[in-house]
Design brief:
This protein is of the alpha+beta class and about 425 residues long. It has 16 helices and 16 strands. It is globular, with a radius of gyration of 21 Å. The relative contact order is 0.20. Bound molecules: fe (ii) ion (FE2). The site of fe (ii) ion has 3 residues, from loops.
């Protein structure tokens, strides 16, 4: 790689593995980033204020839309994506908000059939009798029956992952990004890597405390690894006006610090496909529909009301928390998805702050398959053989707890059932 970021970013100290002395490393990187920003001729406070004004304007627009009773999450019909009839205005709104509901992504009957087939698959293989409890601490706040099923290789999931309809939406989402710059193609928007993830089935009558607002992108590595320093170069060198959440430059390579919620893949969007109808007030997904919030999260600990060895509570091995104490301005824009029907899909930019609202005595089921857009790129090419090995042996993928429920299940999706798109996604065909 011959391309590089600005000189002050290239000169930042960096740690490609989790530093041993975290407080010392935090002190060192904070002071180096502050100096780098100030080399632009503006103070850290001035740069942060310029960004705050940009975000405050977005917050005002969202609050006005809410007051007018408008849905904040953009909605597009699958048929418009498939036919290429999405308007410029619709596309612009998805880029402004960083999120989208695709209506009718799959036929509703198809989605309900998938839901039933997943239940048959887990029940037929005695999953509930064998269930050993949550394998990670992130989703552990539920009872003995899981909500998040560590199931990866059902026919329903694999059929959706390698379907033409999924590929059409992934291509649309990927093409919202700038994938080529500096003579480098950072990812291929037309090829997905079939990143395997789990399913959620939340039954009627469930009580759930929800999930606090967070991001999935990383933790301290966002400030400390070379690849992330370069990816967020406009945050770290004071040229904040040039920061573009849709610029893939430097984003698709480099390590992440290990942790229970770490994701080896680069995802343009996280997403799920609804397998049941869900009303907007039944403990659904919420997000801060302002992609630029990421820059705010990265700049916030550089202000001098924080301790020198504190990144607003961000640690390794713990999900990156977003809260009123440090992030009061963007938190005002937190917005839930509209009601969805089985077969709709929901997408949010990989940097978007999100969480799940609590629910008591839930009406109806809350069932989804997590299927993101994870386009072909150096990071995902590296993970593909690991994902394929897990698929071929029915194992849990290495990004997830080593639970391996499906290894002995005879009716999981087989290698022979992969189509061309599935084979390319796993990197076993070109
Ligand atoms: Fe998340």
């Amino acid at each position: 790689m011959t391309v590089s970021a600005s000189p002050s970013v290239e000169a930042l100290p960096h740690w490609e593995e989790t530093p041993e002395d975290l407080p010392a490393a935090i002190r060192e990187i904070k002071s180096a980033i502050r100096a780098s920003i100030e080399s632009s001729g503006r103070s850290v406070e001035q740069v942060a204020q310029a960004l705050e004004e940009r975000i405050a304007e977005r917050v005002r627009v969202i609050e006005a839309a809410k007051a007018a009773g408008e849905s904040i999450w953009p909605e597009i019909d699958f048929d418009d994506i498939a036919r290429g009839t999405v308007t410029e205005a619709q596309r612009d709104l998805v880029k402004t908000r960083g999120c989208l509901v695709v209506r009718g992504h799959f036929d509703r009957e198809q989605a309900l059939e998938w839901d039933r087939s997943i239940l048959d698959y887990v029940e037929g293989n005695h999953f509930f009798e064998d269930y050993r409890g949550s394998g990670d601490d992130f989703f552990a706040s539920v009872g003995s029956r899981p909500e998040i099923y560590p199931i990866y290789w059902s026919h329903a999931q694999m059929q959706a992952r390698q379907s033409d309809r999924m590929a059409a939406v992934q291509s649309f989402m990927n093409n919202l990004w700038t994938s080529t710059s500096m003579d480098v193609e950072w990812f291929d928007p037309e090829r997905d890597s079939l990143y395997p993830d789990r399913i959620r089935r939340r039954p009627e009558g469930a009580d759930s405390a929800g999930l606090g607002t967070h991001i999935d992108t990383g933790t301290l590595d966002l400030w400390m690894t070379k690849a992330y320093q370069r990816a967020f170069r406009h945050v770290y060198d004071g040229s904040i006006e040039e920061y573009d959440p849709w610029d893939a430059t430097f984003r698709t390579e480099g390590p992440q610090y290990p942790g229970t919620t770490m994701c080896s893949a680069f995802r343009t969007f996280q997403g799920w496909t609804a397998l049941s109808d869900m009303d907007f007030d039944q403990g659904v997904l919420h997000a801060i529909p302002i992609p630029e919030t990421m820059a705010y999260l990265l700049l916030r600990p550089m202000l001098d009301d924080t301790d020198d060895d504190d990144m607003c509570g961000v640690m390794v091995n713990k999900v990156f928390p977003i809260n009123e104490k440090w992030h009061e301005l963007p938190m005002q824009a937190l917005s839930g998805i509209p009601s969805v029907r089985a077969g709709d899909s929901v997408w949010w930019h990989c940097d978007l702050v999100h969480g799940v609202a609590p629910v008591f005595d839930q009406q109806g089921w809350g069932n989804v398959m997590y299927i993101p857009a994870a386009p072909w790129c150096p990071r995902n090419r590296e993970y593909a053989p690991i994902a394929f090995e897990a698929f071929a042996t029915g194992s849990s993928p290495s990004d997830f707890p080593a639970e391996h429920y499906e290894r002995q299940w005879p009716d999981r999706f087989s290698v022979e059932e992969l189509n061309d798109r599935g084979r390319r996604g796993f990197g076993i065909a070109d």
